[in-house]
């Protein structure tokens, strides 16, 4: 079975999001002049209206493509994995996952994609373009999918519309629910091609291949020798050595090496807190902060003192507690003293290596 790129494998709603995004992009990028021309064409040729939502199209074919959003029809099926699609072009793009073909390459960083839509969304990382805007808070996003996920923050349902029929657990994304359902079914569809071990999640399969079978990763870092399955991952890693930080905050000027870190930082300025506690409704900027908070409700205390066995909810609380033990305090002081002595020895060594100034005796 072929190992798929985790960044390429999308949820079931990805294709419909792309169809919607194409329509939204056309409407948002058109000028008033273009709109007038389109209206004249519609008047001349006759317009085609969607009976479900009233959206109008100048061509019948465009209306038919749009209608699959409402009907859910998927007549085109992949012969390799049986996944179905709404249009032939989407099937063609999907099939490249199996063949490994990535014909669309970013001119800036050379990262490649299986379809033009993926490249277009990626290029916005470099251009900073964010054409999709939230009507409630005016925050903008580079893709319609990100806007859709953001809008759930404003909903009154806790932004978790997908419910597990087995245990009632709720999820923000349908893909997360699908992953969770495998806990109940025991399904492990992702297999490592090198050792045969099976996994429930695509990310775990890719992680195992990267860590356990590094010889099969074709892209190697010239600095440290670490290897990667995809060139884009190597490019991200290289910033560790170069110090490059291409993602800059427009509010405070702070720069970041990775897009994910940049987006998390932006929440400090926007006040966005997308992670909601299902118990008390408290919101958090980071998922990790929510996980820590949830232990207040569950009573879980995973951090245990090795000296007295006392348990704590947070790692920081354990660290402070450890200082109450004399032996731990002694270890800490010894470690600090050793570091100070090492620094002093380095200063002396540097001083001894300084050139001796020449003094004339005549």
UniProtKB/TrEMBL annotation:
GO terms for cellular component: nucleus. One of its GO terms (molecular function) is zinc ion binding. The keyword Cytoplasm does not apply. It is found in: Nucleus. Pathway: Protein modification; protein ubiquitination. Belongs to the krueppel C2H2-type zinc-finger protein family. PANTHER family: GASTRULA ZINC FINGER PROTEIN XLCGF49.1-LIKE-RELATED, PR DOMAIN ZINC FINGER PROTEIN. May be involved in transcriptional regulation. This is C2H2-type domain-containing protein.
């Amino acid at each position: 079975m072929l190992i798929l790129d985790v960044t390429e494998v999308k949820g079931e709603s990805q294709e419909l999001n792309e169809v919607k995004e194409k329509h939204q992009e056309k409407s948002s990028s058109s000028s008033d002049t273009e709109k007038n021309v389109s209206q004249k064409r519609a008047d001349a040729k006759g317009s085609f209206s969607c009976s479900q939502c009233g959206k109008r199209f100048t061509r019948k074919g465009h209306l038919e493509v749009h209608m699959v959003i409402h009907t859910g029809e998927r007549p085109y099926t992949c012969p390799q994995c049986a996944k179905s699609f709404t249009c032939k072009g989407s099937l063609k793009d999907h099939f490249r996952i199996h063949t490994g073909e990535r014909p669309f390459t970013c001119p800036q960083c050379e990262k490649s994609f299986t379809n033009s839509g993926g490249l277009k969304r990626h290029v916005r990382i470099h251009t900073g373009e964010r054409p999709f805007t939230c009507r409630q808070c005016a925050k903008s996003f580079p893709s319609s999918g990100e806007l859709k996920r953001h809008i759930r923050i404003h909903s009154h349902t806790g932004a978790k519309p997908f419910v597990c029929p087995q245990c009632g657990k709720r999820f923000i994304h349908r893909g997360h629910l699908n992953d969770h359902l495998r806990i109940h079914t025991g399904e492990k569809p992702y297999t490592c091609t090198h050792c045969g071990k099976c996994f429930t999640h695509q990310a775990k399969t890719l992680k195992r291949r990267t860590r356990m079978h590094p010889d099969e990763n074709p892209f190697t870092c010239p600095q440290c020798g670490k290897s990667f399955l995809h060139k884009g991952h190597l490019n991200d890693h290289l910033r560790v050595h170069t110090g490059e930080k291409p993602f800059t905050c427009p509010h405070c000027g702070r720069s970041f090496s990775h897009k994910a870190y940049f987006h998390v930082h932006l929440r400090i300025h926007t006040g966005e807190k997308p992670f909601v506690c299902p118990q008390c409704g408290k919101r958090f900027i980071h998922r990790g902060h929510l996980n820590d908070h949830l232990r207040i409700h569950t009573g879980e205390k995973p951090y245990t003192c090795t000296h007295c066995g006392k348990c704590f909810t947070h790692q920081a609380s354990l660290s402070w507690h450890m200082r109450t033990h004399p032996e731990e305090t002694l270890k800490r002081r010894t470690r600090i003293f050793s570091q100070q002595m090492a620094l002093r020895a380095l200063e002396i060594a540097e001083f001894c290596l300084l050139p001796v100034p020449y003094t004339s005796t005549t």
